[in-house]
Amino acid sequence: MKNVLRELVAENRLEERRLAAAMEEEIRNPATGTDRRSFLRNSMLGGITLTGLMSMSFEDTIAGTTGKVSRFSGPSDLKITDMRYCVISNGTAATNARNVIIRLDTNQGIYGLGEVRDGADVRYALMLKSRILGLNPVNVEMIFKSIRQFGAHGRMGGGVSGVEMALWDLAGKAFGVPVCQLLGGRYRDRVRLYSYVPNSGEGPLAKIDMDKLKADIRNRMEVQGFTWMKCHPGTGVVKDIPGALVNSNQQWQNPGISPLHAFTALQYTQKGLEAIAEYVETLRNIVGYDVPLSADHEGHFDVNTCIRVGNALEKYSLASLEDFLPWNNTAQIKQITDSINTPTMTGEDIYLKWEFQKLCDQDVVDIVQPDLATAGGILETKRIGDYAEEKNHPMMMHFAGTPVSFMANVHCAASTQNVLALEVPNQIVDNPWWPQLVKMVGKQPLYTKGYANVSLDAPGLGVELNEEVMKQHLHKEDSRWFEPTPEWNEVKSYDGLFS
Question: What is the CATH T-level fold of the domain 190-246+261-457, as seen in this structure?
Answer without folding.
Answer: TIM Barrel (3.20.20)
